[in-house]
Design brief:
By secondary structure, the protein is of the alpha+beta class. It contains 17 helices and 21 strands. Strands 5, 6, 7, 8, 9 and 10 form a 6-stranded mixed β-sheet that branches. It has a 4-stranded mixed β-sheet with strand order 1-3-4-2, with helices on both faces. Strands 11-13-14-12 form a 4-stranded mixed β-sheet, sandwiched between helices. α2 runs parallel beside α8, α9 crosses α10 and α15 crosses α16. It is globular.
Length: 655
C-alpha cells in the first residue's frame, strides 16, 4: 500500500487540475484540429508499454521490482508479455465524440451530462463489448506545447494511473483481456478560475468483443484423425457414413483412383494452425456465418500478398450455428461429415480438399462463442483448416532436428569422445519450433544476398536486421538472431552433403565455421526457420541478378538460420524426434529419421493422434499438464511421461 501511495501524487496533480477545469470551463477552440497522427503515436507508446512493462514502469518513475513482488499479474506480464492492442474505428468514434462533448459542454468526467456512461457510448458506436474500459487525460499549458510533448505527458499519466488500478483489477493498458482501443485527442481552450489555458484533452476507450474461444485441441485432433482415416481408408469411411458407392456420380476422374488406393496421411503443422487461427478470428469478427446452416468457405490460389507462408496451398472454413450447446467433438464430427460428403461430388481435383493428393500438411483450429440474438443465446462454431505442401527440403528439416538435439544435449555431440565434449557449462535449452514466417524472412534474405552479392546478417544497405525483416512479414518479436554460412566453389558439388557438413560443424564448434553461430544456442529463442539456397552460375546478362553479384559465376550454397522470440505469447510445444539409432551412438544422425510413424499423446481421457513428418519430427502445442507420449514402430513400443509447463519440451524416441 505504501508503494501505491508513493505514485499517487504524480497522478493526483493532473486530476486536481481536471477537477477545477470541469467546474468552470468556458471556452473551446481548435477542437477540429486534426490530431490523428498523434493518436497513432500514443497507440504506439501504449503498445510499447504492453510489450515492455518493466521498461515502461521505470520510464515513469515506478519501482518495477516492487510491482513484480506485489502483483502476480505483473509477474505474468513480464514473463509472457501482452498482445498488441488493435485500433478500432468504432471505439475511436466513441472516444472522439466524448472528448468533443467534454470540450463543448465544459466538463471532465466519465459520465456525460445526459447520464450516458462509457458503456452506453461504446455500445452506441456499434462496438458490442464483452469487456470495456475508459481512461481520460488532459494537459493544460500557456502559449504553445508541441502535440508530441503532450502525447508523452498524457502517456506517462495513463501509465501511472493504470498501475494504480492494478490493485483493483480494473487496469486497461495492462489488462490481458483487452484487444482493441480507440483514441480521441483534441485541442481547445479552457478556463480554470479566472485564467484561460490551452489544452489537449484525451479519451481512450478499450474493449474486447465477445470472446471466441479457440484451441479445443482434443476436437481438433479428432478432426485430423478423421481426415487421415478418410485418406488412408476412404472406402471404409464411405461405408461408415452409409454412402452407397454405386450412387456416386462425381465427374472427377481422379476421385475413383483416390477412393480405391487411398492417400498418405497428412502431417500436423503448428505454423499452419497459426494461419487457421487468424482466419478463424477474421470470420468471427466479420460475422461470416449463414443462419442455422453449415457454411463452407474455400480460399484457393492464395497470392503472396495474402499470406507469407510459402507452403500454404489452400484454406477452408466450415461453420455452423446452433440453438443449443453441444460438445466440440460432436461439432467436429458433424462438420467433417459435411465436408467429406461434399467432396464426393467434386467436378475436378481442384474441388478436393480432404482427398487432395497435392497436399501433405494440415493445421486447424476450432473456434466457439455464445452470442445473444433477440434475447436468445446462439452457439457459433467455426472450424478453420489450412492445407499445406511439404515445401521444406530434407536438409532444412533435418537441420532443425539436429539443432534441437544440440540444444537439448549441449554437453556432447554425436561422434565426440568424453575428452572432446563441448561446452559442458551450457545448460540444456528448450527446442525451437518451426515458423513459416521466420522461414519466409530467412528465405527472402538469402535471395537478396545472392542477387545483390553481399554476405551479412544486415541488409545490403546496412539498415535492416533480422527483427526488421521479420516485422515486414508481420511477425513482431522481442528478440531475434540470425546465423549465416556460405560455401562457394567454381565446380559443382552436392548441396545436401556440403550443407550437412557445414551445419554439423557449426553445431560442434560453435565458432568460426559460420557467422553468429553462437546465436543458435540462445536459450530465449522459441521459433526458427532454416533456409539452404543453392545456386549455379548464371549468364552475365541474366535477369536473376540485380547487380554484378559476386556469386553469379560460382556454385553457391548459402545458409540463413533465423531464430526469434515472438511478442505474442506462444503455447508450449511437445517436440519429438523419431529415429533408428543405426550406428548405436545414442544420437540422431542424418538419414536415421523415421517418417509417418503414428504418435499418440494422452492427457487423462484425452488423446491426440498424428504422424511424424518426413524428418521423423513432430511438434504439438498443448496446455500445461501431465502427458504420456506413445510411439509404435515395427512392433516396438516406446513411451515418455512429461510435465509440460510454459516452455517447449524435447523428446527423443530411438528405435
Amino acid at each position: 500500500m505504501r508503494f501505491l501511495l508513493s505514485i499517487f501524487f504524480g497522478v493526483f496533480g493532473v486530476m486536481l487540475c481536471s477537477f477545477f477545469m470541469c467546474v468552470d470551463a468556458r471556452e473551446v477552440e481548435n477542437k477540429d484540429w486534426d490530431l490523428s497522427q498523434y493518436e497513432v503515436l500514443l497507440l504506439n507508446k501504449i503498445n510499447w508499454a504492453r510489450t515492455n512493462p518493466t521498461d515502461s514502469a521505470i520510464a515513469v518513475g515506478v519501482d518495477s521490482d516492487r510491482l513484480f513482488a506485489e502483483f502476480s499479474t505483473w509477474r505474468l506480464m513480464v514473463t509472457n508479455g501482452l498482445p498488441l492492442l488493435q485500433s478500432n474505428e468504432n471505439l475511436r468514434q466513441a472516444a472522439r465524440q466524448h472528448t468533443e462533448d467534454m470540450l463543448v459542454n465544459r466538463y471532465y468526467g466519465y459520465v456525460s451530462p445526459d447520464g450516458r456512461t462509457a458503456e452506453d457510448r461504446i455500445k452506441a458506436a456499434g462496438y458490442n463489448a464483452a469487456v470495456f474500459g475508459e481512461m481520460l487525460g488532459v494537459v493544460m499549458f500557456q502559449n504553445f506545447m508541441p502535440p508530441e510533448i503532450a502525447v508523452q505527458n498524457l502517456f506517462e499519466h495513463l501509465i501511472k494511473k493504470d498501475i494504480l488500478l492494478l490493485d483493483s483489477g480494473k487496469s486497461n493498458i495492462f489488462n490481458p483481456s483487452m484487444q482493441d482501443v480507440g483514441i480521441g485527442m483534441m485541442a481547445g481552450v479552457v478556463a480554470v478560475g479566472n485564467a484561460s489555458y490551452n489544452a489537449y484533452m484525451l479519451t481512450c476507450d478499450f474493449g474486447s468483443l465477445p470472446i471466441a474461444r479457440f484451441g479445443y485441441l482434443e476436437a481438433e485432433f479428432l478432426f485430423l484423425d478423421l481426415v487421415n482415416q478418410a485418406r488412408t481408408a476412404p472406402l471404409q469411411t464411405l461405408e461408415n457414413y452409409g454412402v452407397d458407392m454405386t450412387q456416386l456420380s462425381s465427374p472427377c476422374p481422379a476421385l475413383d483412383e483416390i477412393l480405391s488406393n487411398g492417400l498418405p496421411p497428412l502431417v500436423y503443422r503448428t505454423s499452419l494452425r497459426e494461419i487457421a487461427l487468424k482466419r478463424n478470428e477474421e470470420i468471427f469478427k466479420n460475422e461470416a456465418l449463414d443462419d442455422n446452416q453449415a457454411t463452407i468457405v474455400y480460399w484457393d490460389n492464395l497470392s503472396a500478398s495474402e499470406c507469407e507462408c510459402p507452403g500454404l496451398a489452400r484454406e477452408s472454413a466450415i461453420g455452423s450455428k446452433a440453438a443449443e450447446n453441444i460438445l466440440p467433438e460432436e461439432v467436429v464430427q458433424s462438420l467433417f461429415r459435411e465436408m467429406f460428403i461434399q467432396e464426393l461430388t467434386a467436378a475436378d481435383s481442384s474441388e478436393l480438399w480432404i482427398l487432395n493428393p497435392d497436399v501433405q500438411e494440415i493445421g486447424m483450429i476450432l473456434g466457439y462463442r455464445v452470442q445473444e440474438t433477440s434475447g436468445v443465446d446462439e452457439y457459433q462454431y467455426v472450424l478453420s483448416i489450412a492445407f499445406g505442401r511439404d515445401y521444406l527440403s530434407k536438409l532444412e528439416k533435418q537441420s532443425l532436428s539436429l539443432l534441437n538435439q544440440a540444444r537439448a544435449k549441449p554437453a556432447a555431440a554425436p561422434g565426440e569422445t568424453d575428452s572432446e565434449a563441448r561446452s559442458p557449462e551450457l545448460a540444456p535449452m528448450p527446442p525451437l519450433t518451426f515458423s513459416c514466417l521466420v522461414f519466409s524472412a530467412a528465405d527472402a534474405h538469402a535471395r537478396d544476398m545472392i542477387q545483390k552479392g553481399y554476405y551479412d546478417t544486415y541488409s545490403y544497405d546496412g539498415t535492416k536486421d533480422s527483427s526488421d525483416r521479420l516485422a515486414e512479414k508481420g511477425y513482431l518479436v522481442t528478440e531475434s538472431a540470425e546465423t549465416i554460412g556460405l560455401i562457394i566453389s567454381d565446380v559443382p558439388f552436392d548441396p545436401a552433403a556440403a550443407g550437412t557438413k557445414m551445419f554439423e560443424e557449426m553445431l560442434t564448434s560453435r565458432i568460426a565455421s559460420g557467422y553468429s553461430v553462437q546465436d543458435l544456442f540462445n536459450p530465449w529463442m522459441k521459433t526458427a526457420g532454416i533456409r539452404f539456397l543453392y545456386t549455379e552460375p548464371v549468364e552475365k546478362d541474366s535477369l536473376l541478378t540485380e547487380t554484378n553479384s559476386c556469386f553469379q559465376n560460382n556454385y553457391t550454397l548459402l545458409l540463413v538460420a533465423d531464430q526469434a522470440s515472438p511478442i505474442k505469447p506462444c503455447e508450449a510445444n511437445i517436440v519429438g524426434l523419431v529415429f533408428r539409432d543405426l550406428n548405436g551412438d545414442g544420437y540422431y544422425n542424418r538419414g536415421e529419421e523415421i517418417e509417418s510413424v503414428p504418435v499418440v499423446i494422452r492427457n487423462g481421457d484425452s488423446a491426440y493422434r498424428f504422424f511424424s513428418d518426413s524428418a521423423g519430427s513432430f511438434a504439438v502445442p498443448l496446455n500445461p499438464g501431465n502427458y504420456e507420449i506413445e510411439v509404435v514402430y515395427d512392433g516396438d513400443y516406446l513411451s515418455r511421461s512429461v510435465e509440460l509447463n510454459t516452455t517447449n519440451i524435447m523428446l527423443f524416441f530411438s528405435f
